[in-house]
Amino acid sequence: MRKPNSEPLDGSRAKAGRGGTFDPLLPGMPLDQIGQALASAYDALVSEGVPEHLAALVRRVKHTDLDVPRKAARLALVVEDDPDVRDLAEALLEETELSVVGCDSAEQALAVLRRCGGDVALVFADIRLAGQMDGIQLANAVATLWPKARLVVTSGVAPERCDEIPERAVFIAKPWRAFDVLVEAGRASDEPPPAVA
């Protein structure tokens, strides 16, 4: 936990609340700034119970220049290492109100989330991914750092680690039906984001 009167989580100088302390959850602070602040202070979260192996993977994510739409109202993030399946999911989600960004690894998805996590309405991720992090680890990172994003986890086989999938994530077995994916996209774009506790 940070000490009173310490520097804000995002490194900027912000107006202090009563008593001269910075509260990153002041009313009116946009959720994307909260997500960015949490991502930049991930080491502090580790000491409060986030698994070290997950924290180490998030810390290693490099900022990359991905083709992320500018000023998109809401984003759908498709995380799938099979290019044909990823293209299919992207084409399907492009028929919704969401702008779509495709990634082949959890690490690439986290780079997008660190850049514009507050705009991500839906994360649609396969469990088996290229890279060091799998879809379950990605879903747990998203649930912790970007709680307003709707999570959909998919796999061609029944997940062995069902108990590790975040409670609020939806599991859709492959081959998924277009209707099921569109229903989740509709919920992501229509429902208000969940409140941050």
Automatic annotation (TrEMBL):
What are the record keywords, sorted? Phosphoprotein
Asked if the keyword Isomerase belongs to this entry, the reply reads no
> Record's InterPro entries?
Bact_response_regulator, CheY-like_superfamily, Sig_transdc_resp-reg_receiver
Q: Which SMART domains match?
A: REC (SM00448)
Domain Response regulatory residues, every copy: 75-197
Keyword Membrane attached = no
Q: Which PROSITE patterns match?
A: RESPONSE_REGULATORY (PS50110)
Q: What is the designated name of this protein?
A: Response regulatory domain-containing protein
Q: Which organism is it from?
A: Methylobacterium thuringiense
Question: What lineage is on file?
Answer: Bacteria, Pseudomonadati, Pseudomonadota, Alphaproteobacteria, Hyphomicrobiales
